[in-house]
Specification:
single chain; 143 residues; 8 helices; 0% strand; elongated; Tetratricopeptide repeat protein
Length: 143
């Protein structure tokens, strides 16, 4: 990418705007490793919620859910524009790590939005089933 070369050569300023452009470019080309670096730098430079959200999305796309959770939380702490989506995808990452209670809390927040209510409630139902299944399995193993 020309922009990346310009930044490395110090011909182009390494600021939030350029890091966002770089992050978008790498995300579109599915080069998630470089996208993560660019979005991380954009977030660091700006402390803007939407940059943390994009970083979280890239991390989750690479199954780096533990890191994605931190980035989603930073997005929410820094006034991400779409809190509903941030809560929903935070719940997905928490669910991937079997953090059922935290995921339920995130999905309940997402469900407050009419457009997300149905999907969030579907995941809440799934989590309840998983918790029940795991508890029953634990009881069987202890018997």
């Amino acid at each position: 990418v020309v922009l990346e070369k310009g930044i490395k050569a110090k011909l182009v300023k390494k600021d939030e705007k350029n890091m966002k452009l770089l992050g978008t470019s790498y995300t579109m080309s599915q080069d998630m490793g470089k996208a993560i670096d660019a979005w991380g730098e954009a977030a660091r430079l700006s402390k803007e919620g939407d940059n943390y959200y994009r970083l979280a999305q890239a991390l989750a796309n690479e199954d780096r859910h533990k890191e994605a959770i931190v980035a989603y939380e930073q997005a929410l702490d820094n006034d991400v524009k779409n809190k509903t989506n941030a809560y929903f995808w935070l719940g997905i990452s928490q669910m991937q790590l079997e953090r059922w209670d935290a995921a339920s809390k995130s999905f309940r927040e997402a469900a407050k939005d009419k457009d997300m209510e149905k999907s969030a409630k579907r995941y809440l139902k799934y989590i309840a089933g998983e918790k029940y299944r795991q508890e029953e399995l634990r009881k069987m193993l202890e018997a």
